[in-house]
Amino acid sequence: MQFVDDNRDETEGKKPVTPQALPFRKLLSQADALDWTLMALGTLGSIVHGLAQPVGYMLLGKALNAFGNNINDTDEMVKALKKVVPYVWYMAFATFPAGILEIGCWMYASERQVSRLRLAFLKAVLSQEVGAFDTDLTSGKIISGISSHMSIIQDAIGEKLGHFLACFATFFGGVLIAFISSWEVSLLALFVVPMILAIGATYTKKMNAISATRMSYLSEATATVEQTISHIKTVFAFAGENLAIKSFVECIERQLGISKNEALIKGIGTGMFQAVTFCSWSLIVWVGAVVVSAKKSKGGDVIAAVMSILFGAM
């Protein structure tokens, strides 16, 4: 009896281990000097590529001002446009190598790091005790970890990270250019941008949670199929076909329920995002018309400010 009580005390003393979120910097733990150099070049390309969009809106505003200010004088209109066109060429020549650096460097660096992560993952799996393969480390989880999960990590530290930096540069560059073009319209737009960002952040958080849950259900279904096929003789010997089918169907039904929630959240999120965006457009354009009528700004500058902030926030 004393032996049973001791085991019970040990069991009660154990607390379930809750998985902790991995810091983002840990994803870059396998990077070497060449990888950091590639990521630095990719960051430079992402920033230049991201700034190209608000700069393009500013040049568009200058071109519209050239049309509006010289609508009755073709020669002056052409002269004014000739001052704007060279900057468009300069921007085109700058964005071409920037795009190559952004995509190429980030993808190459991520591929190099993920190859090392896959090797480290395999070494960690092979160093586990044999009993772990009967409980937590199923074949489905191992295959999902070395293929699907590693692909997600590669996207996170590769092209998507470069895209994030480009969007970051687009947003802050757009805010700066908007204030330079028309500070009245920019102040109003800054009150609207937080609503757009809040909707986008909520949508992203919900979709990430659903994606993680769906991946776990898919991993369970994959493990069920692989274990059934690999031990097919044992399954037939003990008449376990119906049990395997039932287990697989349960995983698929749970995944179907998650997919329904995903479709609902996508629809609501997209609808709210579009509604807020178009309402913001209408309000800001109306205020811009008032500012232009009061001779406090030009039409091209107002359009550049509106497009820089709103498209930067998207």
TrEMBL record:
It is found in: Membrane. It is a multi-pass membrane protein. GO terms for cellular component: membrane. SUPFAM superfamilies: ABC transporter transmembrane region (SSF90123). The keyword Chloroplast does not apply. PROSITE patterns: ABC_TM1F. Keywords: Membrane, Transmembrane, Transmembrane helix. Residues 40-314 form the ABC transmembrane type-1 domain. The chain crosses the membrane at residues 33-52, 87-109, 161-180, 186-204. The keyword Protein transport does not apply. InterPro entries: ABC1_TM_dom, ABC1_TM_sf, Type_1_exporter. This is ABC transporter B family member 19.
